[in-house]
Every structure is written in C-alpha cells, then in structure tokens.
Amino acid sequence: MQRTSSALAPTAENATRIAEGMVRHAVVRRRLHLDYTSQSLRLVDRMIEAMRWQGPSVEVIAPTLTALGCYIGEVLVRQGGGAWVDFGPVDWQRFRQPMGVRMPDGQLWNPVGKAFKRFENGPTDSLVDFCFRATGRWH
Question: Domain of life here (predicted)?
C-alpha cells in the first residue's frame, strides 16, 4: 500500500476528515469499498496484514496507520454511537495517542493505537474483535 499522508493534525476535530481521506484513497487508488461497518474492518485487517508482509518500518507507514486508525474510530462513532475526544495528559500517557473515541458507556478506546498494534502484532489484534469489544455487538 502506498503511503497516505494528511496535512491534518491527528485531533478529535480532524479525525473524521482523516478517515474520509483514507476512504477516498482506498476507493480511487485501490478500488476498495470501505463503508464504515464493522465488517469493513475485515478489509482493513487484510490491508494492514499486507503492509506487514511488505516489511516497511512503523515510522515509514505511521501516516497510513494513523489514517486507518481514524477510519477504525469512525466505525465506532457511526456504528456504536461514540464520539471523538482529544486525550488529556493522563489519557495520553495511557494510550500514547492524541485522541480516541468515547463510547456511550463512558469508556475510552484507542483506535489509532489499535491500528499500530495490528501492524506490530498481526492477526491476534483483530480489528473486528476490537469493534465488537468497543460496541458490544456485531453490525
């Protein structure tokens, strides 16, 4: 997968636009259909797995993983009723990311960090399972 970058800083305010940019990139460059459903995360799992096999360093593909993480978070927002939030200092220490998703039950989730973990750890960090844990249901 070609590197995807965004001029937008990874913040709660920009997360949706970053995700939308990833969707446009996937449709135009890769002819992939990302529709913000939990099932589309199977495709994102495969995209990240393909990147793992290509062997780039995390630093090289960090912008792409951040954009994919924003897409994952947007699935939580659209399917599970979550809301993007900027992390304060305590949550930043916990998650090592600038923003995440707060679900209706008040729990915080770190979809950008999950994209990085999926790349680093492989299929054991399934994005579909992550969505199920965050929302409590399949969509």
Answer: Bacteria
